[in-house]
Every structure is written in C-alpha cells, then in structure tokens.
Amino acid sequence: MSTTLERPDSETRTPKRTLPGPDGLVWTVLRLHRTALWMWVGYVVISVGLLLWLWGPGSSAAREAFDAFGYTGAQDNAFHGLSSTLPLFGSFDAVFYNPLSLTRIASVAVALFAAGPLIARELESGTAQLAWTQSVTPARWLATKLIVPALFVAVGTSLVVVLYRMVWDARGHLLVAGIGPRDFAFSIGLATVADVLFGLALGVLVALLVRRTLPALAIAGIGQYFAGALRGNSWPFQGWHQQPELPIHSKAITTGGAEVSDPRCYLEQKCLDEHHIAGFTREYLPSPDYWPRQLTETGILLGLTVLAVVAAFLVLRRYQPKRPKPVTQGAAA
User: Fold this and answer.
1) Among 19, 30, 77, 321, which is most buried by a count of CB atoms within 10 Å?
2) Long-range contacts for 62-68 (Cβ within 8 Å, ≥24 apart)?
3) Distance (Å, rounded) from C-alpha 267 to C-alpha 275?
4) In this structure, are residues 197 and 114 in contact, taking their beta carbons and an 8 Å threshold?
5) What is the strand order of the sheet 259-260 is part of?
C-alpha cells in the first residue's frame, strides 16, 4: 500500500518574514538613497580619522616644539613647521581647522540632498505620487523621509563634535591665539548638530514649495549657506563683534617645579637655561560665554527646524487627494 504526500495549499503555507517597518518604507528610503548614505558615512569616517590623526601623530611636531620653547615654539611650528608624519598636510595649526570646514560644508550638502534627491526629484518625476497610491499616505511618506536621514545626520555629526571637543581639550594649547581658536570654541557644540538638522528641514520645505529639482537646490543651498554665515558673524550675544576672547593659562615651569611667567626667550636655549626653565604649560580655560551662546543658538535653530517641519506638513496637505462629498438621499432624489 503506497501513500502519497500532498503539497500544502498556498493558504496553509507559513508566511515569509518581512522586514520591519510600515510596508518596508524605511528600507525603501535606505535603498533608494544608499549612495547619499554611503557618502555621509564616508564624510564621518574621514572626519573621525583626521581628528584621531590630529590627536596622535599629527600633533607630534607641534608638541615637541611646545615642550622645547613653549608658545613661541608652537608659533614657529605653525608658521614654518610641517607635520612629521604627513608633510604635505602642513602644520598642526593649519590642519586643525579642516574638520570644522567639513562640518560647514556638510550642513549645506545635507540641505542640498534634502531639497533635491530626497524630495523635489521624486515630486518632479511622479515617484512620490505613485507611492501615495500604494497604501502610503503623504504624511507617512514625508515623516519617513525626514526621520531616516535625521537619525544618520544627528548621530554622525554628534560623533564628530564630541571627538572634536576632545581633541581641542587635549591639543588646543598648540594653536596660535587669535580668531581661529575663538571661532572654533564657539562654533562646535550642540548648535553644530542643530544646524545640520535645520539644513535638512529647510531643504525639505523648499522642495515641497518649489517642486522643481534645480530651483530647490539653489534656494536651499543659498539659504543654508547664509544661515551658517549668520552663525559665524552676527548671532545673539555677538552683534557685529567677534567672538569673546578666550581666557588662557600660560606659564613656564622651572627645574624646581614652580610655575613662573614665560621669560620670553623665544627660540634661544641658552636663555631658557639661564632662567632654569624645564617646560611649559598652556591651556584655554572655559569661557563663561560659551554655554549661553550655545544654548541660545541651539534653541533658535531647533525652533526654526520645528517650524520648517510643521510648515512642510502643512504644505503637503495640498497634495492630499480630495475625498468626494457623500451624496445625501434628498439630493439623489
């Protein structure tokens, strides 16, 4: 007697596991914009790598010059010295501000991405309208478009900011005093993260208003650039003046371990020996203006970000399909 095995009906089959998320919309956004995602990851990796290099071998020549001649040695290295590991990069003082420039470029790049590939291009090509006809409401579509990039932008920028502040605390004494350290000290912080998030929200809002890729790119890029320029030149607690001076603790250390004023021997070892100087110490002290400025900038930028997001959802309402009015029995008769 033989038995036959019956194939289970399709209705009794175990359903396949699907990726989490509302209809896979999150993963669709990640796949669609994976090139931009990898570019952002590359920016974070390059910035982190550069900061780690500045913390370690990139500052070795400047540290040797400072240990030998104090602030004068750091100045001489900044103006004439080169990195002992990567000479083509220039001195520590010159390379230290490169990650700061990258953060400012990144904020404009985020605004351009949000205005162009993320929103305007899909509206212009009809891809967004097609998604709205497939069980994806415009509100859910926009929320996903905002939340997914915001997570990557916030995490990546926060990592760069935290590491940058650590390098500043450990190697800031090697920088030449002036506008450079002041600009850095008051620029990098919570407001840096808020600035990039504002660029994302601004780009989305502009794209929804314009609905054309090239005009949206131009308006969002220019707007975010001027927002960054406003932060650097005429922000609250600053007016038309430069950032406040940073307090500095700078002393020379004698062979007996006492801290004395720098004898200003410049690069003369004989003069240092005559004053029994064995080393130097120098550090930028925390400014009492830092947190009031940072918190004010962060609050303003986050407030503008919230307003831009709310405005984006209000603008999106005009894309909502209008429901036909129900016909009453009296009207039908």
Assistant:
1) 77
2) 62/91, 62/92, 62/93, 62/171, 62/174, 63/171, 63/174, 66/173, 66/174, 66/280, 66/282, 67/279, 67/280, 68/269
3) 14
4) no
5) 259-260, 248-254, 277-284
User: Which structural domain range is residue 156 located in?
Assistant: 23-55+96-246+298-320
Q: Is 317 exposed, middle or buried (0-12, 13-18, 19+ CB in 10 A)?
A: exposed
The predicted pLDDT at position 286 comes to 86
Mean pLDDT value of segment 261-280: 89
154 lies in some domain: yes
Angle subtended by helix axes 25-32 and 34-55, to nearest 10 = 70
pTM: 0.84
Asked if the structure places residue 155 within a domain, the reply is yes
Tell me the two tokens of residue 322.
Answer: 């209008």
Quick: pLDDT tens for 229-267.
877 655 554 544 556 778 888 899 998 889 999 888 888
CA 259 – CA 255 distance, rounded (Å): 10
Q: How many other β-carbons are positioned within 10 Å of the β-carbon of residue 73?
A: 21
Handedness of CA 82, 86, 90, 93 (dihedral sign): negative
Query: Is the distance from CB of 189 to CB of 296 less than 8 angstroms?
Result: no
Give the amino acid at 216.
A
Give a three-class secondary structure readout of 41-82: HHHHHHHHHHHHHHHCHHHHHHHHHHHHHCHHHHHHHHHHCC
* Each residue's pLDDT tens digit, 83-107: 555 555 678 998 999 999 999 999 9
Residue 79 inside a domain? The answer is no
Into how many domains does the chain fold? 1
Q: Report the relative pairing of strands 277-284 and 259-260 from DSSP bridges.
A: unpaired
Run of H or E residues at 90 = none
| Within-domain flag for 73 | no
